[in-house]
């Protein structure tokens, strides 16, 4: 009886061990399948992020170019505070310079559809590379910081525009650029050169000039370009794994 009991006990233990091994194998297979599925989803996200950040790289390059042109336009306008220069150019050229400064701004509006979806859905952890996850997560905060700079730039330009409206003629600028008005105006014979005799206007223009120069620097457009390039390199490395 003792021998039979011992045999049954060993047999039971063996059965338990086999069951445990079977469970462990099943769990391992399940984990492998889950990892494959997560890796598949990760690759899909990585490919989508790659496309989105390439678009954003083109957009930031465009902003850098536009802002550089704006810097050149402001430098031309600053030269008009020199009477030796201002008195030698026509009203039409003055209008062209004014228009080149006020016609628009280099505002960065990135594509964020994929990025927003990953973060809001809680799927950012599917990206295995921790460094890449951190760079992607910090991209949003970088854009928030840039928005503060852009708002300040627009506010400074708005102040200058109000000064131009008060002391100059927008109609004269538009007319000198070829816009035909149906009726005559008191602005037809006005000059915009007088606004360049105002110290306050020059101070605001210098403030604006320094701001847009900083915007193209490493803290804003330049920094965003570098950040995007680093993200794209990391994404490419993860895709190739």
Search tags:
mainly alpha; 241 residues; 76% helix; single chain
Brief overview, please?
The chain is an all-alpha fold. The chain is built from 8 helices and no strands. α1 (2-79) runs antiparallel to α4 (113-120), α1 (2-79) runs antiparallel to α8 and α5 packs antiparallel against α8 (221-239).
Helices and strands in order:
Layout: H1 2-79, H2 83-86, H3 91-102, H4 113-120, H5 130-167, H6 170-176, H7 199-215, H8 221-239
Helix pairs in contact: 1-3, 1-4, 1-7, 1-8, 3-6, 5-7, 5-8
Explain what this protein looks like in three dimensions.
It is a single chain. The mean pLDDT is 89. The relative contact order is 0.13. The chain is mostly helical. The radius of gyration is 32 Å and the shape is rod-shaped. The chain starts with a helix and ends with a helix. Helix 1 runs antiparallel to helix 7 (199-215) and helix 3 (91-102) packs across helix 6 (170-176). The protein is built from 8 helices and no strands.
